[in-house]
Write a structure and sequence with these properties.
The complex is a heterodimer of chains A (257) and B (317). Chain A is mostly helical. Chain A has one domain (3-250). Chain A contains 11 helices and 2 strands. Chain A is globular. The two termini of chain A are 26 Å apart. In chain B, the strands form 3 sheets. In chain B, strands 6-7-8-3-9-10 form a 6-stranded mixed β-sheet, with helices on both faces. Chain B has 2 domains: 6-226, P-loop containing nucleotide triphosphate hydrolases (Rossmann fold, 3-Layer(aba) Sandwich), CATH 3.40.50.300; 229-294, Alpha-L RNA-binding motif (Alpha-Beta Plaits), CATH 3.30.70.1560. Chain B has helices spanning 45-52, 70-78, 96-106, 111-124, 140-152, 170-186, 198-204, 222-227, 271-280, 294-316, and strands at residues 6-14, 20-29, 34-38, 60-65, 68-69, 81-84, 158-162, 190-194, 207-212, 215-221, 231-238, 252-257, 260-266, 285-290. With 317 residues, chain B is an alpha/beta fold. The A-B interface holds A 1-2, 4-6, 8-9, 11-13, 16, 19, 23, 86-87, 90-92, 94-102, 252, 256-257 and B 15-16, 50, 53-57, 74-76, 78-79, 81, 83, 85, 87-93, 98, 101-103, 105-110, 150.
């Protein structure tokens, strides 16, 4: 395929993915907006007023970046996992496999589609947060870079999950038993400086902690961990997972008999 | 000489459970041909086509499409290939028009080019009025036609149809046949068809390959194959029921029921002799037809021979 044809194929896939999640917006865009509004009201407003400050900021200001990040992670992941698994389940993945579209385009199309939903939901949550606090962004470019990279990383993760999944249960196990606990323990609601030394060290093994902290640094200018290292870790994770997903596609893992 | 539309050499497929689905298949399909790949269930038809379409990974052997080895340049080979699979394989929740346009997009066709092509195909196949409805609202026959429209969007030179008329009523089947004949004749599209309706293969195809137990057991023209047919069985509907089986010298006669006889006619024998014998016995024939179509008789005898052979081999081991 030449450059124009490749661009057309990629856009076809991305547009199809965007059409899919916007068509079913009551399942994809509405629930995270409502859930996050609840978080802002209950944790930010009601409980947060009693907690006072965290790392020198009001509790509401502290949790806003974490909650935006949580929405982006969950939605980027689950969009690709459920969309690609449905494609496998309905066998419409064969439409792509018989076409001359390169595997990297198939992977990128789904990942960009997942990012569109993740970042879209992130934008909605950001708008909702403006009803509860005045957002200030200390480092706008860094904030944007981190959220885009994190979204890409989890979208690729969702793709691998869908490739490996054999039944619908398989694509809900990782979000429920891995992503949610890691996100909650990743410093969304608290600073890890509150933890005893041992649990601080354990927390450092949680990759989501790095993303939440760098993102919060972008907003507030404070972080529990070095920003440079965190960015490097995100880049490394993306490279490894993208390579793995591509290798699996090239070898037909989960899609060819 | 022009490259074959499809050339397969030594194709072998062993599945992970050890089942050897294909045992070194060699096959050539000429450009512009209308070719039937026939075989009983599990013989290896869909596996063969699956390898050609990249849905199944081969174990060994080579496949070329218009001279392009799929191992070397699958992307280029795929431009020549259109596939209509046996099972519905589109997103049931998508609109009909979106399904065909997306397929065109995967081949790099811009919307400006794809839209008129989609209209032409959907109109030809009687789906234009349904273009804005979701695929799940279509009847079974319409879904099959949608897959044909989708496969033709990028104007492939080789169209593979895996049981395209399964579950389709007779009227619709005939209209699909006439459409396939048209694209084969007018556009020169090479068509490879698998089917269980042997009448379909006899009516449409010029060449036929019979696959059994993962091996091609015949690859010839339909005409040549039919010429080899030694025996045809005819059914005679009688105008009055009989309470005995009449005998006709030189013919094997069976009474299907009181008002129907089945007579096996060997090559060289004349049906006129049957009519004469029945007339002499005061038996009048109301109508007559083949018990099965001719290709079906040939196919059944070949597959049964293969089965007997494999039983013999099994008995020796």
């Amino acid at each position: 395929m030449n450059f124009t044809q490749t661009a057309v194929a990629l856009w076809t896939l991305v547009a199809k993915e965007i059409r899919r999640f916007t068509r079913i917006w009551p399942q994809t865009l509405l629930p995270p907006s409502i859930t996050m509004t609840m978080y802002f009201i209950i944790f930010g407003n009601l409980i947060g007023a009693r907690i006072g400050e965290m790392d020198g900021y009001s509790y509401m200001d502290f949790i806003v970046p974490g909650l935006i990040m949580m929405s982006v992670i969950t939605n980027s992941y689950s969009n690709v996992a459920s969309s690609f698994f449905s494609t496998k389940f309905q066998r419409s993945v064969e439409e792509m496999m018989v076409s001359p579209m390169p595997n990297w385009v198939i992977l990128s199309g789904f990942v960009l589609g997942g990012m569109a939903r993740g970042l879209g939901v992130g934008a909605i949550v950001t708008v909702v947060s403006l009803f509860f606090t005045q957002l200030t962004i200390a480092h706008p470019l860094l904030t944007l870079l981190v959220i885009v990279l994190t979204s890409a990383l989890f979208a690729v993760g969702g793709f691998i999950n869908a490739l490996l999944g054999k039944k619908f249960d398989d694509i809900s196990i990782v979000p429920t038993f891995v992503l949610t606990p890691l996100t909650y323990l990743g410093g969304v609601f608290y600073s890890i400086s509150l933890l005893p030394d041992f649990w601080q060290s354990v927390s450092m093994l949680n990759p989501i902690l790095y993303m939440v902290n760098v993102f919060r640094y972008g907003f507030l200018g404070v972080s529990d961990i070095p920003v440079g290292w965190a960015l490097l870790a995100i880049f490394a994770f993306i490279a490894v997972l993208f390579g793995l997903a591509l290798w699996m596609l090239e070898n037909g893992k989960g899609i060819r008999s | 000489m022009a490259e074959p539309a499809l050339s397969i050499r030594g194709l072998t497929k062993v599945y992970a459970n050890g089942f050897e689905a294909l045992k070194g298949i060699d096959l050539d399909v000429a450009q512009g041909d209308f070719y039937a790949l026939l075989g009983p269930n599990g013989a290896g038809k869909s596996t063969t086509l699956g390898v050609v379409c990249s849905l199944v990974q081969k174990t060994a052997g080579s496949v070329s499409i218009f001279g392009i080895d799929i191992e070397r340049d699958f992307a280029r080979a795929k431009y020549h290939l259109g596939v209509v699979p046996q099972e519905f394989n589109f997103n049931q929740f998508e609109k009909v028009l979106d399904i065909v346009l997306a397929q065109a997009g995967y081949y790099g066709m811009s919307r400006r080019v794809a839209l008129p092509r989609a209209e032409e195909l959907l109109r030809d196949l009687g789906l234009w009025d349904k273009r804005n409805g979701t695929a799940m609202m279509l009847s079974g026959g319409m879904k099959r036609r949608l897959m044909i429209a989708r496969a033709l969007m990028h104007r492939p030179k080789l169209l593979i149809l895996d049981e395209p008329t399964a579950g389709v009523d007779i009227e619709l089947r005939r209209s699909m046949w006439s459409y396939m004949r048209r694209i084969n004749r007018e556009e020169g599209t090479t068509i490879i068809l698998t089917t269980h309706y042997l009448e379909e293969a006899e009516s449409l195809c010029r060449h036929v390959g019979i696959i059994n137990h993962g091996q091609i057991i015949r690859n010839t023209s339909v005409r040549e194959l039919l010429a080899e047919l030694d025996t045809e069985t005819f059914l005679f509907d009688l105008d009055k029921p009989l309470n005995y089986t009449p005998s006709i010298q030189g013919f094997e006669v069976h009474q299907v029921d009181a008002a129907q006889l089945s007579v096996a006619v060997q090559r060289g024998q004349s049906i006129n002799d049957i009519f004469a014998a029945l007339s002499e016995q005061g038996i009048r024939v109301a109508s007559m037809r083949n018990r099965a179509n001719r290709l079906e008789e040939m196919f059944v005898s070949m597959v049964e021979d293969g089965r007997a052979e494999s039983h013999e081999k099994g008995g020796r081991s």
